[in-house]
Amino acid sequence: MDIAKLTIQNKLISVIIICLTIAFGFSSYQNMARFEDPEFIIRTAQIFVPYPGASPLEVAEEVTERLERALQELQEVDSISSTSSAGKSEIKVDIKSEFSKTKSELQIIWTKLRNKINDAKSSLPPGVGTPIVLDDFGDVYGLSYLLTAEGYSPDELHAYAKNLQSDILQVEGVAKVAMTGVQQEGIFVEIAREEVAALGVSINNIYSILDKQNTMVSAGNTQIGEQRVFIDLTGEIDSVDTIKNLLISATGDGKAIYLKDIANVYRGFQSPTTKLVRYNGKPAISLGVASVLGTNVVKVYDRVDAKVIEAESRRPIGIDVHEYYHQGEVVQASVDNFVVNVIVALIIVMVTLLIFMGLNSGIVIGSVLLLTIFATLATMDASGIPMHRISLGALIIALGMMVDNAIVVTEGMLVGIKKGQKKLAVATEVVKQTKWPLLGGTLVGIVAFAPIGLAPGDTAEFTGHLFWVILISLLYSWLFAVTLTPLFCYMLFKQDKSVEKSQEKPNILMSGYQRLITGALHHRWLTIAIVIGMFATSMWGFKFVKSGFFPASTTPQMVVDFWLPEGTDIEKTKKNMLQLEAYIQKLEGVEGVQTLIGGGGLRFMLIYGSESPNSSYGQILTKVDDYKKLDTMLPQVQNYIDQSFPDAQGKVWRFVMGPGGGSKIEATFKGPDPSVLRDLASKAKTIMVEDGGALSIKDTWRQRVRVIEPQYSAVNAQRAGVDRKAIADALQKNFTGQTVGLYREGDELIPIIVRAPAKERLQITDISNIQVLSQLTGKTVPLAQVTDGFKTIWRDGILKREDRIWTIKAQADPVSGQLASEVFNRIKPQIEAISLPDGYVLEWDGEYGQSKESNEMLGSTIPLGLLAMVLIVVVLFNAIKQPIIIWLVVPLALIGVVVGLVTTQIPLEFMGILGLLSLSGLLIKNAIVLVDQMDVEIKQGKARFDAVVDSASSRMRPVMMGTLTTVLGVIPLYFDAFFQSMAVVLVFGLLFATLLTLILIPVLYVIFMKISPQETA
Question: What is the DSSP string of 373-410?
């Protein structure tokens, strides 16, 4: 089928297709989903299991181990990591990506996981609480509000937060509104030992009254006439005063004893606090808004903004709603910035075409380019690929590549028309001659990016849309090159009617290239030797190339992780965090400071991971007006922490553009004995300290904690009628408090907590006088009577395992100004030299481990990609020698890559590795055009040596134009931190390799085809 002739002769249909392409493309641009980063699936679930009173080792052996064993039976499980602490087991389960390619598939797996946990509950020991499975670990609350109040109590602020939460949930497109930082209230009943003893009141009776008085009870119903009437009993607790006035007992003379007579009853907030949230120096409540999956977050969050503004009139004066993070605005700014980059790249490409190809040729190729972009946008929208950093970056990368096919067709028609041939005949001949080589080159260019889109793993999933966008755009570029390009050329190029045709004289550039190529062909082995020497030099220079994983984000935020020794009371952590908070607030450029004490916050970005609750942990999230200020702010804050908090470990950092998390350097030790693992981690940490280039040096088990052990006396306890549970209950009621009932207030259930007064609760020295209830006599006995004294021990506060093996990680991060890879390369041989006992292993996680895993995932698909590329070239030429010639030039890309990375000092990051892979496709595409033209001219009967020289000369301009447009189009990406490494690889690699290709391909061709310089006319 003559597709070019068909397009030209059916102009109306062609115009309709063009108009539809523009309309659908523009509509898609306006309405398609927008995100800051690609939505990759977080395949992690958390399981929390309470086991009150158990030590970390008991939790690990009696709860964690049994659940882990059950979970490992699921074939979908990839890895299991657990943290066992006092009274609590926390298990994280990661699912294999091949079983959970979509969220719906993942939900099925979560159901199977819940069933497995429910089945395993029967094997857990008595006293274990109900396991809680959280499968929303990956939810992103892209709109973050902080609510503060002046002159309001925490419960009043909470009441307003609930109202605002209800309002936002009504907004179309909102999936969830989460709240954190709420202070938990309680009704406290503080009973002094002296009062109970003096009045002779039964403690058990008090607890029973508090529990039963407010329990929801049914009084039944009765029939009155023809109606059924319910009976509703009154008398429930409806105020603190009601609790105070509960009748507890009566004396022998009939005097009533009320609860207020023996206890201090009041309403307050539970202590110790589990988590605190502050904003700009004030207590706050955090609200996070998550949108429905796949929606346009810009529009959804704009509607949320409108709802918040609408609710402002109902907001009490003194309560403020602060916006900390607005993903909609960030996404819109990101899209706008990328659109500017696209336009800049488009202008660069257009100007280049106009300068080197002429006005009419430039208009033709530019028009095809615009249509290709519109068609790509429409197809992206239809196939569910949203606008985000990766897809827009792929458009910019593809810009230059999109014009390659159109340049070849335009060049061919231009040459044919200048020779006096009829335009229609030229269009038919050029498309017929070039469509299959161009398709082959296009497919090779697409397949070069295939490992990115088809590799398993989170990192490849994060960058996967790069491949799909390039696939869509390049296929359209080929389709439009063989259809619309001939049509536009037919309409714009004028038919040369002169009869006599003279050979067009080559310009200075062409003449110089012909002399260069002729000289190289006459000195072919010298040329080969020079190229080999350049390649060997680049291989030697590769050791000077820095390595990385993903670059630091340009998000204007600073993160401070702050750790005090394990077991530190949250009040101590709060005191230090308030001091650090005040310091950061005074720094220039700071716009907002969110302080989290006792745990991390809501996941407001996909790349933010929240720390599990821990009283010794605090985090500060700081907004600044310009991300460039972070370069000086980070070391300044780090230095302040190091000098002001000698007992703390601080890590000041910024977000990374991509998957990851945790410390950048992690030496992971695994083995059967926790004590040996602690010793190994200690040795690794010593090496990290001695290096001097690392900070925040710690291990995942943290410090051992102090524990008081009352020595239970079985004989004395049995005589007194006291068991271990009675002693434990007495200790808990005295120091922590114990819930004995619930107080209902609207939709809130507030616990009624019995505990000792402050003077008894806060003094550990008086522990022996705590009264323990005897089940035998109904009276209390002092704790000293049923124990043999007290002992203080040190034990592990946290125990971690991975896949049921004890695991400890020695962690560190590089100091400001150093790459993690630099520090890692220095300490790696020293840590690996640590002698490991039999049964123990060392693994590397952190940035090195994540990068290695990602590269291995990528590498798993590279062989298939290379095989596909080889097959395409072999099928295209139906020969072996031509593909060998083409593939021999591919390694030359490394020459320019090394020069570029060493010159600019940009690390070779994961995106740079993707750029390196894609270079092979670009070079093969150029080489195909050259080799195919040589084959064609030789088949047409031209002297073989002349055919090689003339083919190289005739294809020099299309090849150089394709390279130049690609290189110039990619240049704007150099100024985007995420794509910077890839931009350097593509620009330098393609430039150097193309220049060498234009020389080496003809040289290799004459060598393999045994062409002599004498074979000339």
Answer: HHHHHHHHHHTT--BSHHHHHHHHHHHHHHHHHHHHHH
